[in-house]
Amino acid sequence: MTKNPKAKRLIINILILLFLVGGTVAAIQYAKGYRPNLREGSLQGSGLLNVTSYPKSARVIINDKLTTVTDDKLYLYPGNYNIKIEKDGFHPWVKTVPLKSELVSNADARLFPTINATTPLTFYQANNASLNPDGTKIAYVLTKSPIDTANGLYVHSLSGNFFGSQYTQIADNNTRDFTKALLIWSPDSTQILAVFSEKTKTTEKITSALLLSTKGINNIKTIPDVTLRLPLIISQWQDEYAKINLPTIALYPEYFSDILTHKAVNVFFSPDKEKVFYTPTLDVNLPTNEVGKALPNINATTETRNLQKDKTYVYDLKEGTNYLLVSASSSATTKKTIITAADATPSASVATLRQLKAQTESYSVGNLSWYSNSRQLVVTNADGVSIVDYDGLNMTNITYVQPLNGFVVSNPDGSRLILLTNINQKADTYNLISFDLK
């Protein structure tokens, strides 16, 4: 009996089609993270763990077992995993990360060295340091130089200058003592307002004010006193800050924008504007995190939605999460209120000027400042200077030395911390010292 060749070809084509369909389904399921479980004889879904670090090639220990090195991706069955990322010469990073079937979870560690190389940026004696609004320049006053004309007010560029010196002297100390001035950067960083005052038991009275260009040396003998123009200068700078702050505030949910503008102080946005730390002035309950519910996976650190007065929190715009920062403390004298409009008749008072200064200098009102990558915060306390993840985890001590007046800033690329501090010098002698974080 002769077989039908057409039927044979049909059967072969059906088998090929079934093989292709089955292979495609298997490939899709494999891509989703499904793996055979030999113990249970079933196909079980898994999650993808993406482990990264800076610096790279750090050891990844999962549930106390050395598993891989960064940067790597691992398929693991759903569950909670204790992740430890470590590298010789660096502080370890630890976090419990939950994995869910078919979803990607991230363990992204910024490791900091256990021993920091230090480099002095100034010599003799530096004082009265002030960071500009975009975090790229430091103004400071140099004294005790053996060259008398070298003493004075300087601007140091943190981002480097390939065409000249990183240091620019903008005034000397011969006619005015800038160590006693309140230094306030203009919002565009082109000017510095130096305000001199006298204190009594009950008040602090402005005696004079100078408006200095930051581009080069200013002749203090001929530059006019702007004390009478202070209300106009304050109003103009408040208007500039309002134009900067309002678009950023508008990015956040309406209920949260209201908290930032009317029910909180010491509000400071991260460099990428996607996070903000703030201190409520009254108890407030945040609504349910609808943003987090809509996302497939978010940071697993426990949130705090019930805000308490005078405690400090971090809010993450992208995930709608809110975390308590137990390491935060604030100044008893100055509390920054975010500027959203210029005063119609601004008062030329020291308090008003300190509010202008506090708009961008968080260390002047508390012990926190943003690290340049927007994922960590710099903290000063009795133990010196530390860096902590934005959700309050992985507090890492950088140095035990204390910064003068809390001045510690991160340079733009995050490779250094700059402190105004004393290291191996005479008592009461301070300089700007760079701490290497690479």
TrEMBL record:
Gene3D superfamilies: TolB, C-terminal domain (2.120.10.30). It holds the Pfam family PEGA. InterPro entries: 6-blade_b-propeller_TolB-like, PEGA. Residues 47-111 form the PEGA domain. It comes from the Bacteria. Transmembrane segments: none annotated. This is PEGA domain-containing protein. It comes from Candidatus Collierbacteria bacterium GW2011_GWA2_42_17.
